[in-house]
Amino acid sequence: MTTIYRSTRSNHINMTASQAILQGLSPDGGLFVLRNFPDHHINVADIVNLNYQEMAQTIFRLFLTDFSHDAIKECVQLAYEDKFTTKDITPLKQVGDDFVLELFHGPTNAFKDVALSILPHFMDHSLSIQNEAKKILILTATSGDTGKAALEGFKDNKAIDIMVFFPNEGVSSIQKLQMQTQVGNNLRVCGIDGNFDDAQTQIKQLFNNSEIIAEFDQVNIQLSSANSVNIGRLIPQIVYYFYAYSQLVNNQEIQVDESVDFIVPTGNFGNILAGFYAKKLGLPIRHLVCASNENKVLHDFLQTGIYDARRDFLMTTSPSMDILISSNLERLLFEVSGQDSDLINQWMDKLATHGYFSVDSDTLKEIQQTFRSGYATDEEVKQTIQSVYKEHDYLLDPHTAVAYKVMKEQEEFGYKQIVLATASPYKFTESVLDALNLSEDNATDDLFSRMSLLERETGVPVPDNLAELLELPILFNDCISTEEMSHYVLTHGKGD
Ligand SMILES: *Cc1c(COP(=O)(O)O)cnc(C)c1O
User: Fold this and answer.
1) What are the two backbone dihedrals, phi and then psi, of residue 472, each rounded to the nearest 5 degrees?
2) Which residues make beta-bridge pairs with 5?
3) Are residues 175 and 427 in contact, defined by beta-carbon separation less than 8 angstroms?
4) How far is the CA of 321 from the centre of ligand 1 (A)?
5) pTM: predicted TM-score of the whole model, two decimal places
6) CATH for the stretch 93-107+232-426
7) How many CA atoms does the CB half-sphere of 412 hold within 13 Å?
8) Which residues line ligand 1 (CB under 6 A)?
9) Torsion of CA 305, 311, 316, 320, to 10 degrees
10) CA–CA separation, 428 vs 415, rounded Å?
11) Strand, helix or coil at 471?
12) Rg for the chain (alpha carbons), in Å?
């Protein structure tokens, strides 16, 4: 079996695709990456006529080398046949002279659905390749959207249980309600009185804690991750970069081989890294623009080469991007440093112990060849939602608005710009109403009256699955301190 994956932090840990997907995180704390990336393996002219599902299969074959073509096809069908409300899966909309790639038409109305609709099928199939009798327990930290998308994807899975931890004060009321009302016989949801970074760090420590691993091993359970640290989360996200491009070609907006820019609202650096992988595979991308909210640690890094997380964690109106430790940057650093694990270890140790690290100027220059960056304040997000609605009759959610604002200040003539729209505006109804100045005069505490108000005012329909939340009972009300997480996992993770 070809072990095509290795750890970013050591040359000695090797895995097949199915092993890497089941493990989630490498035991040395690193992330799984391809040893030999299939650079320029895709000629765009060959694939612009494929539909979403066919394109997905073409791309997955390069990454899932121990899956049969039939297995890949089956995973794709199960994920994308009827779970999305558009046949296109990720439709491209024109807004003014620019383009918005809508990634939020899945079961939970955020872009995380694109990957988390298929990851459970990748995992099921990986279990059968590995002939594993073990049960998997997925531990997930969420800044709001991964949690619900993962719950929806894994609910009632026979071989896989899932536990989700979210920042109790750090998600929107709709996001919280979506998770707390989740039905399923294999899952658990818990708030923590910390932020996303606290949850992610705790979970990474659990994965590297040999006593805890052994304790679960005794009862035949293996821990895994549904966060974008899992390579199985990133691979599906590559597809829509190609698909957006093909829609531009097919609408005669660009010639095949013409370069475009993508602007990506960024938190854990997973989505934008998938764009980088698309470029490496051969998609003509000029710039990938990293758009940050006021937690602009990535913007500062991309400008200066200094990654400095020693700053206040801010709560913004784009909560899914409230992150200071962006895990997937490690995968980019691995590529641009020439797969230098020693350097990665130095940088990551420094970050873990001192809260910052800096890269040399050659590395920074290499990164800046492709990556641009900018950020938006909450006030700018508000203004952007308002002006785009007024001028173009298009409703942005706050995360997408961050990217839209950054696009407008970057715009250079002659290149098509595509903003990745990562969530439905209804997931953030309060902030969107506020941006449109509709919250004051129509004050009401009731979330659902507010969604209806937004629908009445804008004519954009409330997604069915959000409208239905009203009728669902709250099933999970636990809230614990960050320190209690490992105890909680041990207590509840073995099946009760
Ligand atoms: C997760 C998320 C992001 C950030 O994506 P990363 O892959 O973590 O960079 C942006 N917007 C929304 C709505 C999200 O849910």
Assistant:
1) -90, 140
2) 15, 34
3) yes
4) 6
5) 0.96
6) 3.40.50.1100
7) 10
8) 110, 112, 145, 228, 265-271, 320-321, 399, 422-423
9) 60
10) 31
11) helix
12) 21
